[in-house]
Amino acid sequence: MATKLPRNILQYLATYFERQERGNCGLVCKQWKEPPLSTYWAKLVIDNTTIFTIIDEFRIKEACTKDAYRAWTLDINLGKYYPEYISLLQPTGLALESIFNKLSKLICLVHLTIYQMSSIEHGQNIFMTDIESLHRNLSHMHYIKIDASLQSIPEEEMERTRNVKSANKIKIIHFIYDNIGLLWISYFAHKYLNLVSFNVTPLKILG
């Protein structure tokens, strides 16, 4: 059975192994040797020691020269490890724009998860402009999960929700909401035309 598993399935399974364990996959069978090793940079987890790589122009360039650009999955916990950065820039509307712009250097990235932004006391909401910024900078995304409350879209933005540029590569999205509202539904309907899975979780369930 092992020899019949497709390469992409083997690569996906390998992302759940510790990096030092991926070399042992070759002991199962010859076909299991190369795919796990090719996923060494498949997933990045941003924590308190690596968050600066994203917000520092020089260090992101250094990381990319060390094969980090090959990562196709990124988990980042901004609320836990660097809330000051978000709180400082959120009033200017530049917080996520700045981060998404730097993440655009990860040219293979297709799977993005942002955790616990809802725990930030100030500026914890995601605006429609933030989602637009994400797609403008990371147009190759297939999967997006953002653990943050969606800010209500003003009624005067109704026409804009209907005229957004669609993100046709997106297959799966997952957002947290407090009160999603009809304008967000309109936005999602026009933005994501090729969805396979659409998951929105009420904020009260998480609390």
TrEMBL record:
This is F-box domain-containing protein. SUPFAM superfamilies: F-box domain. It comes from the Eukaryota. InterPro entries: F-box-like_dom_sf.
